[in-house]
Specification:
The structure is a homodimer. Helix content of chain A is 35%, strand content 27%. Chain A has ten helices and twelve strands. A seven-stranded mixed β-sheet of chain A has the order 7-9-6-10-8-11-12, sandwiched between helices. A five-stranded mixed β-sheet of chain A has the order 1-2-5-3-4, with helices on one face. In chain A, α3 links the parallel β3 and β4. The first copy, chain A, starts with a helix and ends in a 12-residue tail after the last strand. Chains A and B meet through α1, β1, β2, β3 and α3 of A and α1, β1, β2, β3 and α3 of B.
């Protein structure tokens, strides 16, 4: 048991308000004046969630995107944000502000307030953002999957992990994959449109396998994932080739910020029609069954789980 | 011009939504579903806003209190909070969680969510909290003071600054003053009751003089402060003696988290009656006039402004 999970358990014991959803959902859901407000606060830390060498404009984009990805998973439309900013080098700060303006404007998110603080020179920086969204309809949780429901994912998986490997010099350069690492696209439109259809939704931030396992645990089900159905980009396939190993590695990498959702089998035609309409692939990658646990298959054959399912304690 | 003020100006250029109030108010005001929601996000940094030797329970209290002080200045009732937490030593974290439970319960504030992140070992920690409040009525800004309005402050001034001096070994020990530094009391009841009466309100966080000067600038007025009217605690007076120097020093120290507000002269009887009712001193310490600038008087005589009006770049 890590000290971190002890701390989170202590917070969970405090967070008894229903709006906190047991701290199990990455976003709080508050009913105020007949409206449903979704609130999330995510931090990113230098050297942990981004590289010190990443362009500050992209760090700003990522800070906004990872928070909006939580709103997307709840089907909420972004309304505003509060920034918690640790000042650093003036040039870096100026570039961050430019990137922030770009990201906020791309997503129609208003900067509403926040705080800037001085840090000791050279201290690694922790940046936080609170995003506030308004839900249009019902809000999916992580826990609504049931045996027989299908598991779906948006976009492609593993690109950001490959982008990070490239930036670390572990892989051949590829602009598309680096861009997927630095500029994740929160799936806001898909999230809002899927909210009435999906039975459970979350975003893939720590890795497809670990996050699918979390959805299964929250839902009291087992989940079976077809490795060969996991959507991989052409860029990733051309650099790594197609193999169960490539697919396991992609499914255990983090930072995808795609939507992972469960839906009844009968919803499949609607989901595929939605994918066509919004121009974002939505792929069926598995199914929930009775029992518990996560199992992997490749072309019908059982495959052992990889050692790394994703990031467990980043956090 | 500091790099920090350049950064904040850049944010101000982005924050064009009326709910942001030009980033001039320390809290955002969002109208949703007929309710008025007040949002604030304040960070505290080890070595800057608190001492590494401060008990973690008190650091948690301060993180909650400084945010609620912003809600108090807007007359909002606390509804919930999101925590941005940098993990450290497990024992410290556990004590922080206990202090957080105490503070949240003292103020009826629900923990709704947030994020915990790992930091590099030894890195100074930055902790953030987003507080969400609901306003019962009109929301005062900083900018509503007009010539002829009086300037008022709640509680006593300079205690926290003296408490910090004690902890740094610069002053004789005194438990009351240290407690005022470590456990500030956000003036929520006073803030909610004053909202319909005050013409401008803010909390005193950086120092009475600098904050009063900011209110005057925002309101397009000058402000005159009577040093001898500034409320000082018995503890502070007994340790430092009463003199213009003591009073200037108290008025230039930060971390008071008292309410500073303007009101029409005719409101004085109501304000004094409210002070009696809620058991919190509310003291008239000056007045707004035409023109601009901050001037100090002591028993009717003009006094030069001290070199330090408060904390300017903490921030």
């Amino acid at each position: 048991v890590s000290t971190e999970s002890v701390f989170i358990d202590a917070l969970r014991a405090i967070a008894t308000d229903p709006a906190a959803r047991g701290l199990a959902d990455d976003a709080a859901v508050l009913e105020i004046g007949g409206e449903t407000i979704v609130l999330t606060h995510d931090m990113i830390v230098e050297g942990i969630h981004y590289l010190a060498s990443d362009p500050p404009e992209d760090v700003a984009w990522k800070l906004v995107a990872v928070n909006l990805s939580d709103l997307a998973a709840k089907g909420a439309r972004p309304r505003g944000a509060l920034l918690g900013y640790a000042l650093g080098d003036g040039q870096w700060d100026a570039a961050f502000a430019r990137g922030l303006a770009t990201a906020l404007s791309a997503f129609g998110l208003a900067l509403l307030g926040g705080d800037t603080v001085a840090m000791a020179p050279g201290a690694p920086r922790a940046l936080g953002l609170t995003a506030i969204g308004i839900a249009a309809g019902p809000i999916p949780s992580r826990s609504g999957a049931r045996p027989g429901h299908h598991l779906w994912v948006s976009g492609s998986i593993g690109d950001a992990g490959a982008g990070l490997a490239i930036l670390k010099g572990e892989m051949e350069a590829n602009d598309y994959l680096v861009e997927r690492y630095r500029n994740p696209r929160p799936r806001l439109e898909a999230g809002a449109r899927l909210a009435p259809i999906a039975t459970a939704t979350m975003d893939v931030s720590d890795g497809l396998l670990i996050d699918a396992g979390r959805m299964a645990i929250a839902s009291g089900c087992a989940v079976r994932i077809e490795l060969d159905s996991i959507p991989l980009s052409d860029a990733l396939l051309s650099l790594r080739g197609d193999s169960p190993e490539t697919r396991c590695r992609a499914a255990g990498a983090g930072d995808d910020y795609e939507l992972l959702f469960a839906a009844e089998a009968a919803a499949a035609p609607n989901i595929l029609a939605l994918a066509d309409e919004i121009g974002l692939p939505l792929s069926r990658i598995g199914a929930f069954t009775g029992g518990h646990g996560l199992s992997l298959f490749h072309r019908g054959d059982a495959v052992a789980l990889p050692a790394k399912l994703g990031f467990e304690h980043r956090t």
